[in-house]
């Protein structure tokens, strides 16, 4: 391990201790989880949750139900999550595709190894690398590290330079202990929200300040807060 990797691994251990986050997808229908992740694209979790609640008042969120659900009504239900005119037809197309390819049962992907399952998911309508990995991580408990906007930002500040999704995801996965990868991704997100915020990070009270190469830059620029 390089000194850089050792330092990041030790910062990740701090986050794992600090954020014992729970898997919000546990006990939910696998397709319902996928729709939640799609809805959370380009909006906040709060708005995505609101949209899901609205949708569940009108229908069960399964491939069968959504394949037949009027798309306009679907767009109205999820409006709070933004881009509803694009998201609604995409979700319906996804429902139909899941029926056609897996008989409506996404859990069939359980039989594939992680690489294949990733490839399958990424080939579905509207499913990019992040959405696929969040689903694999939360539903199939696969040891992948999905990258969302918080994780990209925090990683950059820690000193990662790559802009390649798969490369960064693999690097972080490599630095997290196997069984903790699921928690690791949620812990970095929680940390990004609480401390390493986009505009004015809380470097002055950050638990990782000692190891972070960006702290000085934010402090000198007067952008760091407590
Ligand atoms: S010291 Fe600042 S930039 Fe570095 S991880 Fe903490 S909050 Fe983020």
Structure write-up:
The chain contains twelve helices and no strands. The chain has 226 residues and is mainly α. The longest helix has 19 residues, at 84-102. The structure holds iron/sulfur cluster (SF4).
Helix coverage percent: 55-70%
Distance between the ends:
32 Å
Mean pLDDT: 94
Beta-strand content? under 5%
Report the principal-axis shape.
globular
Instruction: Tell me the name of the CATH homologous superfamily of the largest domain.
Output: Hypothetical protein, domain 2
- Runs in which pLDDT lies below 50 for 5 or more consecutive residues are none
**What is the count of helical runs?**
12
Which cofactors or ions or other ligands sit in this model? iron/sulfur cluster
CATH topology (fold) name of the largest domain: Endonuclease III, domain 1
Please write the CATH class name of the largest domain: Mainly Alpha
**Which CATH architecture of the largest domain?**
Orthogonal Bundle
Biggest β-sheet: count, sense, barrel?
A: none
> Strand-and-helix sequence, N→C?
HHHHHHHHHHHH
How many domains, in number, for the residues? 2
**Overall radius of gyration:** 19 Å
Provide the structure class. mainly alpha
Please tally the β strands and state the result. Answer: 0
